[in-house]
Design a protein that fits this description.
By secondary structure, the protein is an alpha/beta fold. The protein is built from 16 helices and 15 strands. It has a 7-stranded mixed beta sheet with strand order 4-10-9-8-7-5-6, with helices on both faces. The chain binds pyridoxal-5'-phosphate.
Length: 412
């Protein structure tokens, strides 16, 4: 992947060497350590080029053909392209590509369908619900009455019986399915059935698996959910941002919930970059990529289990793995710090059993770098060696540097 930003980098180096140093330092960090954060990826040079383009200068409140500003005729074409590509990629009747982030997409979905005080059923935060699924520190927990379902303490799988029981008891206005840490496919048909039974809207927050859906490596929530929210970064490999998909009957409500209800001017450079990413995700190469992401995650999960970590649900269907490192003598927080010192960057997460923190990792970024199952074996062994205290962090760092040297995210 050649870097196409050399010109911009040169301009920045001349005009603001201090900031240029920071950017180069971050590029070096990303290129010489292992990016195992499940929500991260490497966007293509074409996506980065669109992000750094003059479209960033344009104010464009409203929607194509109905803006509050003049001079929008070109950016209108960019937004229509992004919308058409998103609709085609996911088979949706309507797409809104303006949400600034995954959280703002969820906020807009709630704004489109709910009133403050409404009851919403969602995966509880201790089991992998996102902040926007009812955290008291977030607008969702303040404005709505959230009821949380959980996962089975033994299997780590969503407790579908509990979902049905809670839905019957609380008669929520909306049911949310989606998680920051659930490694398995979600049974969207089941959620649809329960939502229909109790007269609730179904909102799928598919921020994590949407890239896999694009590549045909995970089931799509689009045929089942009234509204699908997603991020365009993560496995989808686009710019940081959000999007909303829905049927034609909710299109106007969703659009008005994004602008003017929850956002102002659309970020046209990001929307252009989303169009680029949707175009890339529609290619056969992306299909192969998405399937390789899952193959790598499955291999890594099995290898980590063989090293003694307790892998939640016994494996994964997606890009994401959560695991308890306790059998190796460390808790999740200590493990994350030790691994960071060794050049392996990942997150802590809640575990379905007990209070201890576990590890959450994903294979989207390393797969973009071209790594396969063979490299997953090396990563699992290195990770376990560091956690057991058998491999010193400097030695591990050297091995990580050697590995990332062979699989550069950007070249040139
Ligand atoms: C399920 C889910 N919803 C929403 C979000 C929020 O996305 P953002 O960080 O872009 O606001 C995330 C981010 O990880 C997520 O995993």
């Amino acid at each position: 992947m050649p870097v196409t930003h050399s010109l911009e980098a040169d301009v920045l180096r001349r005009q603001d060497p201090e900031l240029a140093e920071i950017l180069l330092g971050e590029l070096d960090r990303q290129s010489t350590t292992l990016q195992l954060i499940a929500a991260e990826n490497f966007s293509s040079p074409a996506v980065l080029a669109a992000l750094g383009s003059p479209l960033a200068n344009k104010y464009a409140e409203g929607y194509p053909g109905a803006r509050h500003h003049g001079g929008c005729e070109i950016v209108d074409v960019a937004e229509r392209l992004a919308v058409d590509r998103a609709k085609a990629l996911f088979g949706a009747e309507h797409a809104n590509v303006q949400s600034h982030s995954g959280s703002s997409a969820v906020l807009a979905a709630y704004a489109a369908l709910l009133r403050p005080g409404d009851t919403v059923l969602a995966l509880g935060l201790p089991y992998g619900g996102h902040l926007t699924h009812g955290s008291p520190a977030n607008f969702s927990g303040r404005w709505f009455d959230f009821v949380g379902y959980g996962v089975d303490a033994e299997t780590g799988l969503i407790d579908y019986d509990q979902v049905r029981t809670l839905a019957r008891t609380h008669r929520p206005k909306a049911i949310v399915c989606g998680s920051i840490a659930y490694p398995r496919h979600i049974d969207y048909a089941f959620f649809r059935e329960v939502a229909d039974e109790v007269g609730a809207y179904l909102i799928a927050d598919a921020a994590h698996p949407m890239g896999l859906v694009a590549g045909g490596a995970a089931p799509s929530p689009v045929p089942y959910a009234d509204v699908v929210c997603a991020t365009t970064h993560k496995v989808l490999r686009g710019p940081r941002g959000g999007m909303i998909l829905c049927g034609a009957e909710l299109a106007e409500r969703v659009d008005r919930a994004v602008f003017p209800f929850t956002q102002g001017g659309a970020q046209m450079h990001t929307i252009a970059a989303k169009a680029v990413a949707f175009g890339e995700a529609a290619t056969p190469a992306f299909k192969l990529y998405a399937h390789q992401v899952v193959a790598n995650a499955r291999a890594l999960a099995a290898l980590l289990a063989a090293e003694g970590l307790v892998v939640t649900t016994g494996g994964t269907d997606t890009h994401l793995i959560t695991a308890d490192p306790a059998p190796l003598g460390v808790d999740g927080r200590t493990a994350r710090g030790r691994l960071a010192a060794a050049g392996m960057v990942l997150d802590c997460c809640a575990l379905p059993h007990g209070d201890a923190r576990g590890l959450r990792l994903g294979t989207a970024a390393v797969t973009t770098q071209g790594m396969g199952e063979e490299e997953m074996a090396g990563i699992a062994a290195l990770l376990a060696g560091v956690l057991r205290g058998e491999t010193e962090s400097q030695k591990a760092r050297d091995q990580v540097r050697e590995l990332t040297g062979r699989f550069q995210p950007y070249t040139g």
